[in-house]
Amino acid sequence: MSRLILVLALSSVLIGCGAQPAAQAPVEVTREVAVTREVVRVQTQVVVVTATAKPATATVAPPPAPSSTSVPTAVPEPTATAEPTAVPVPTAVPVPTAVPPLPEGETVPGRIVRTIKIFDIPNEAEGVEVIKADPGVTLEVLYRGGQWYQVQGESTGGKSVTGWVYKDWINIAPEDEARLQQNPNALPVLVSKIAQSRSNGYEYWSGTVMNVGAQTAHDVQVEITINGQVGDTATRAAHGTAFIATRNLAPGQSATFTVRTDWVSSDGVFYSYDVLWTER
Predict the structure, then answer these.
(1) Is the separation of the CB atoms in 196 and 205 below 8 Å?
(2) Residue 221 CA from chain centroid, whole number
(3) What's the fold here for domain 188-278?
(4) Measured between alpha carbons, how far is 272 from 188 in angstroms, rounded to an integer?
(5) pLDDT of 133-165, one tens digit each?
(6) Of 48, 62, 103, 187, whose CB has the highest number of CB atoms within 10 Å?
């Protein structure tokens, strides 16, 4: 009984002194905060940085020392390469014999294949008719000029006539045609019809000239003359001359021209042209 009283008395003394319970170890607590139907979890994140090791430089190991007892592997002998078959030497192609040119002053025969007109220049559009020729007539062919041939014949009256025939109007043997030479002289001719236009009180005449000869034509000009008629007398109403665009024409070369004259309004006039050049 006295022991029980002593225990109770000690308990009362401890309570009265306000004794606190012993401290406990901290405990990590995760907090949750509710925000309008959303739960935000707050966590502490720890990032660990690990140092990357520097790669070691590769070391080439030395080859193992040959063993005194090892036998080297035998290298196979190369297979003999077959010799190539001899390539046959091609047969030499014979070089064609050059056709000798037609000597100066000689001609080759040509036969007219249809009724044609022979012109004074190798141009049907601007040339002047020299004479007509019927199919079957044989003419002497002198030279070529572009796609035309210069021919020579005799009229029914016994007069010698020289003019130009287009290649489709005459038949010449191939071996004879190969011997024909280009006309040796400069021979500029009109290769297009002359076009006319009027402006500012003047009349302009334009076209193209070509050298169908074998020599250079120098200082090529085109002359336009407008003629009138008074009774039986022809009169000059206007006149103009101009150099072509390329003043000196090489063989086979062409160039344009434009000649200006006065504007003649009379209906009783006609024009004529002339191509002028010099040979040096």
Answers:
(1) yes
(2) 34
(3) Immunoglobulin-like (2.60.40)
(4) 16
(5) 999 999 999 999 989 999 999 988 889 999 999
(6) 187
| Nearest residue to 164 (alpha-carbon basis) of 124, 128, 125, 120 | 120
Other CB atoms within 10 Å distance of the CB of residue 176: 15
Q: Give the count of beta carbons closer than 10 Å to the beta carbon of residue 165.
A: 22
Helix (H) or strand (E) holding 108: strand 108-112
Strand-pair category, 116-119 with 108-112? unpaired
232 — alpha (psi -120 to 50), left (phi > 0) or beta? alpha
Cα distances (angstroms) measured from residue 96 to each of 64, 109, 123, 177, 262: 77, 24, 35, 17, 59
Q: Backbone dihedral region of 153: left (phi > 0), alpha (psi from -120 to 50 degrees) or beta?
A: beta
Q: What is the DSSP string of 19-87?
A: PPPPPPPP-----EEEETTEEEEP-----PPPPPPPPPPP-PPPPPPPPTT--PPPPPPPPPPPPPPPP
Give domain limits for the chain. 108-177, 188-278
Q: Does domain 108-177 have CATH number 2.40.50.140?
A: no
- CB within 8 A of 228, min separation 6: which ones? 234, 235, 236, 237, 264, 266, 268, 269
pTM score: 0.59
Low-confidence ranges of the chain (pLDDT < 50): 1-23, 35-40, 42, 44, 46-51, 58-60, 68
- Check: CB of residue 195 under 8 Å from CB of residue 205: yes
